[in-house]
Amino acid sequence: MKGWRRRQARRRAASALAVGLLLVMATVALAAQQEQVLRVDLQEWQLGFRTVEVQGGRLRVEVVNGGRLHHAFEIRGPVGGAGFTVATETLQPGQRAVLVLELPAGEYEVFCPVPGHAQAGMTGRLVVRAGG
Question: CATH says 35-129 is which class?
């Protein structure tokens, strides 16, 4: 009888562990779905996109300076709305930065704020759609 109880206890413990692991995996998967990732590759004289669309909600902007000169990345807007600006620090070649944001629906200007770089073509548009 004692052996049977031990086996039952082990089975219950294993089942509880499996359920716990599934819950953790489901939570991680849900969090990954809720956070969108926008990768920005700064090069001489481009951002890697002209217009990009994302759904409203949590946005992780991963910026890398893949160019030979120093660059930065700035988001300003929404266009026609209250002023909002967020930017990375100036990045040397090869450096990376991450911005984690929750942006309301709207259109945002994106550009390199280093003097002369936006005028040389390092501009774009970020469109945030309602919902998430």
Answer: mainly beta
